[in-house]
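re the bet — no i am not wrong, look at it urself. input seq straight from the record:
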Amino acid sequence: MRIELAEHAFVALAIQIIVGLLTRNWWAGALLACGYFIGRELAQAEYRWIEQFGHGLRANAPWWAAFDLKVWTKADQFADVIGPIIATSALTWVMLRRERRPRT
């Protein structure tokens, strides 16, 4: 696996760890990190749509332009969204299980 495919997941985990340690809310950290990367990828998809189908004008883009599967052509684009979701969900699950474990 190329490191570029995991970069978003690693950065999302770093954001989640910082927020989780500061607030003790691991879901908040996951949502903040994933929201950032999902928004970033949707914005890039919208720009691709505008270039390919909107004649370079944002005014030609419909509200659903970022969701058009015609502009999501590479597996990397999906990985950049799914990677942070899986990584932060896994860390949240581990941390919540750890907190619920009975202390001996």
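see?? Helices lie at 3-23, 26-53, 75-100. told u. also DSSP finds three helices and no strands in the chain. so pay up
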